[in-house]
Design a protein that fits this description.
mainly alpha; 17 helices; cytochrome-c oxidase activity; iron; heme binding; metal-binding
Length: 559
């Protein structure tokens, strides 16, 4: 059943010297260079910021229950949705999968003892924590009212809020992304195990490699854009402010040249996660592995060429609009290939509906909806009609939040037994996965309808005719909040009371599943030797009951 042939057997000694046993003091964690501990530090930080951003949008959804608002001023409303946007995009969605699962799993997947630059890895977490904490402090103490995009003229002329400090914090976090990208690229190039050729890499490793290239090439453009905003506000330079000779459309070009590739920084890792989960729980090799690799590479390259579809109403020439529209349809092709190949992987598979699979299936549904509605917005006439409406909000959240968060949760549940050595309560996890999918659709399908009917986004007050849709959306958001909180309960419980998971509770292939759970500090006792292609689930008839350690009655079945 195993994908790889390893040159060692796990021992009790290796389990006793897991990465969790290398010192329990706070200082030992803050100074660690172990990629697994750094992944956990990232996970704790990202989770904290996620819930801060979630509280902000929860207040916004409560406010929008009434057409005239009922506890916020318009300025407070603007600051609340800006807090949500900045935190969720820059401090959660972008680093969520690469910084956590990428850090923890990638070196083990390729047979490496650690990342190529362990100290740089620790520095990247400190940069992330310092920059994000500084920005969140600014957002909570004074606030920013420009929206997460920092668009001029809001950020250059009209806003009297703390734009510069917030932009500086995001600027610092950008260096964390660059450091992580450089580290992952070097790790994949230099530290692959003997026999681990490029086309024996798991798809998650491929997704981390492609997203690292995007982070390294695109993030400096965002940094430059934010520095120019700061220079304009601090020194009065005529860069983006049209009233003194600047060009606000220039900022949009710079911003979206980064921010559309950033969409793929969020979604490409999600594609890698669900590829691992689908193969494992369908007990089948990923259909069209080579096409899946080339689709990842194509998305990474073509994603740099479509930024202009965010600017169809910004004054571009009709020819530019036509070119960007065409390229936007082109970039949908490799995404469609991945959807078809995932579906073919599932076809006639021996599918199990454990929690990771339910989250992955939720990703497939939401990603497909988000991708199809993206084609609407790639069409110039429809985009002009739908620009700055709730249709855009629903599209963005469906593919970015619904897709990325579903894959993030799938990955957490899939690799949780490996990270902790413990099982969680399976029924509670399945319930949370279903609640998240239903809550997400109840939140954003009304927003698709509102947008199609002409409801503008970001408006504090709105016509009474849209109230029913806002009430439904807010109800869905409450359900979604419960679905997000549930894993904190049962995963936290599992740390102390969960059953022992065994080294490979899913019967999965891949090097990371051939190490003890939790893994030893250096991942492998001896360097592994790779002898076959990934996802060799050839022994498909093996009964699931034979996969390690049946559950104890009353505990979750993590098989």
């Amino acid at each position: 059943m195993s994908e790889m042939t390893l040159q060692y057997a796990p021992t009790e000694e290796s389990v006793a010297t897991s990465y969790l046993d290398e010192g329990h003091t706070v200082l030992s964690w803050l100074l660690t260079t172990d990629h697994k501990r750094i992944a956990i530090l990232y996970a704790l930080s990202i989770t904290a910021f996620f819930f801060i951003g979630g509280v902000a949008i929860g207040l916004v959804r409560l406010e929008l229950i009434s057409p005239t608002g009922w506890f916020m001023t318009s300025d407070e409303y603007n600051r609340a949705f800006t807090i949500h946007g900045i935190i969720m995009v820059w401090f959660f969605l972008v680093p969520s999968i690469p910084a956590t699962m990428g850090n923890f799993v990638l070196p083990m997947m390729i047979g490496a003892p650690d990342v190529a630059f362990p100290r740089l890895n620790l520095l990247s977490w400190y940069l992330y924590l310092i920059g994000a904490s500084f920005t969140v402090y600014v957002l909570l103490s004074g606030g920013v009212d420009t929206g997460w995009t920092f668009y001029p003229p809001f950020s250059s002329t009209y806003s009297h809020s703390s734009v510069v400090p917030a932009a500086i914090g995001v600027f610092v976090v950008g260096f964390s992304s660059i450091a992580t990208g450089v580290n992952f690229m070097a790790t994949v190039h230099l530290l692959r195990a003997p026999g681990m050729t490029w086309f024996r890499l798991p798809l998650f490793a491929w997704s981390m490699y492609v997203v690292s290239m995007v982070m390294v090439l695109a993030t400096p453009v965002l940094a430059m854009s934010l520095l120019l905003i700061c220079a304009e506000r601090l020194f009065g330079l005529p860069i983006f402010d049209a009233s003194v000779g600047g060009d606000p459309v220039l900022f949009q070009h710079l911003f979206w040249f980064y921010s559309h590739p950033a969409v793929y920084i969020m979604i490409l890792p999600a594609m890698g996660v669900v590829s691992e989960v689908f193969a494992c729980f369908a007990r089948r090799r990923v259909f069209g592995y080579a096409f899946m690799v080339y689709a990842l590479l194509t998305i990474g390259v073509v994603g740099f060429m479509v930024w202009g579809h965010h600017m169809f109403v910004a004054g571009q020439s009709p020819l530019a609009n036509l070119i960007f529209s065409f390229l936007s349809f082109i970039v949908a092709v490799p995404s469609a290939i991945k959807v078809f190949n995932w579906t073919a992987t599932l076809y006639r598979g021996q599918i199990g509906f454990e929690a990771p699979m339910l989250y992955a299936l939720g990703f497939l549904g939401l990603f497909t909806i988000g991708g199809l509605t993206g084609l609407f917005l790639a069409s110039v006439p429809i985009d002009i009609a739908a620009t700055d409406s709730y249709f855009v909000v629903a599209h963005f959240h469906t593919i970015m939040v619904g897709g990325t968060v579903s894959a993030f949760m799938a990955g957490i549940h899939y690799w949780w037994p490996k990270v902790t050595g413990r099982r969680y309560h399976e029924f509670a996890a399945q319930l949370a996965a279903i609640a998240m999918f239903l809550g997400f659709n109840l939140t954003f399908i009304p927003q698709f309808i509102m947008g199609w009917l002409g409801m503008p986004r970001r408006y504090h007050f709105y016509p009474d005719v849209f109230q029913i849709w806002h009430v439904l959306s807010s109800g869905g958001a409450a359900m979604l909040a419960v679905a997000y909180l549930m894993p904190l309960g049962y995963l936290g419980w599992s740390l102390f009371n969960g059953d022992r998971a065994g080294d490979n509770p899913w019967g999965a292939t891949g090097l990371e599943w051939q190490t003890p759970s939790p893994p030893p500090k250096r991942n492998f006792l001896r360097p592994p030797q790779v002898t076959s292609a990934p996802y060799q689930y050839h022994d498909i008839g093996r009964a699931r009951e034979e996969v390690e350690q049946a559950p104890v009655e009353g505990r979750g079945d993590a098989r």
